[in-house]
Design a protein that fits this description.
The complex is a heterodimer of chains A (152) and B (247). Chain A has 152 residues and is an alpha+beta fold. In chain A, 22% of the residues lie in helices and 33% in strands. Chain A is built from 3 helices and 10 strands. Chain B is elongated. The chains are: A alpha+beta (152), B alpha/beta (247).
Amino acid sequence: MKVRIEISPDGEDEIIIKCKRMDERVELARTLLDGALGGQGELLLYIGNTEHYIKKDDILFFESTDNKVFAHTSDKMLRTDYKLFELEDIMPSYFVRISKSAIANVKLISSLSRELTGNGVLTFKGTNKQVYFSRAYHRQLKDKIEEVRFLK
Amino acid sequence: MKVKNTLLGILIIAFAIFGILEVSGAIPPLAHIAGGITYVKIIAGVVLTALFVESLCKRRFCTALFMLAFIFMIFERNIAYIFALNTTNIINNWLLLLFTAIICIGLKLIFPQKFKFIHRIHPYQHLHKHLHQSASHSASTRYKENNLTSSEEYIDCTTFTSRNFENNLGQTIIHFENVSEYVGEGKIYIENNLGNTVINVPRDWRVVTEIENNLGSVKNSGGTGTSGPVLYICGENNLGAIEIKKV
């Protein structure tokens, strides 16, 4: 795969991958770039009426409760105006849907345990917070963990 | 609470002994009422009617429907006698229970939360006199139900005023977030049936509890505290375990 850099003083920085079709190598390149650069951005979140700018990499998971979406960092719970499906698009690819009501940051997961029903619980590095994932999203979650953490 | 449970236990045992004596023929039935009615049936009928009325008062319509079904099952033979029906088996008991359950499911689908909010605000009144049951309060109370699964609930203290939790045969763990924003006077109402509920309360908060414990365990580790913002926890624990942990 060729790597070419074009320097253009106008407009914002952009990385475009040109390919004949989406294959494993392209996906890997995207994941690596996303991992390296995606989390640098910040997200506008709220505690009450106060605005907070939180690095995407610091967010453990998003959870929807009572028609509101909250982002959890290791020590805070912040409200966002985005819907979960919108967050799936704007967050880096290592944020993965784990249930109908939650999206987790695969990079920060420290353990995953399953219950008898097939559902399970995720714990995160450096915090006691945990979130439940549903059976339907387990395969997708495992694949993403392997892809991001072990660069399959 | 212990005296109440002891009394209830004695009454239940007495009822069972009375039933055995009646079945064995030591106590004759009242033959002249509605084609023969036993004392046990009368007592059971009174208890079920009381439960039916209580359920209606608390807006627990499903429980009320089941109480009606049980009353019908007990007095089925007498009802058939009064209406001079040919058969004493008007409807199969299992079918009756099945149809009652179907009606309950239908009602729950039509009114998913209406049943719950109304009666669950009441316990706060015992707990905190100046808390009035206003329409706005009912509307702001959020409700979460967990059946047979495990769930972690995070309460955002910036907007927290009152929350309802119901846990049936599952595990619910409640956490408080953004605790520095908490102004106090928050209320949590819990109904824990055969499950396990853990409430992780910040160490410096003052906790006031009023939990009706029916054959279960309520543990408050870390004490109630003397200063700091107040959190009211009330509700019911039926054959389950509630633990209030200071973290």
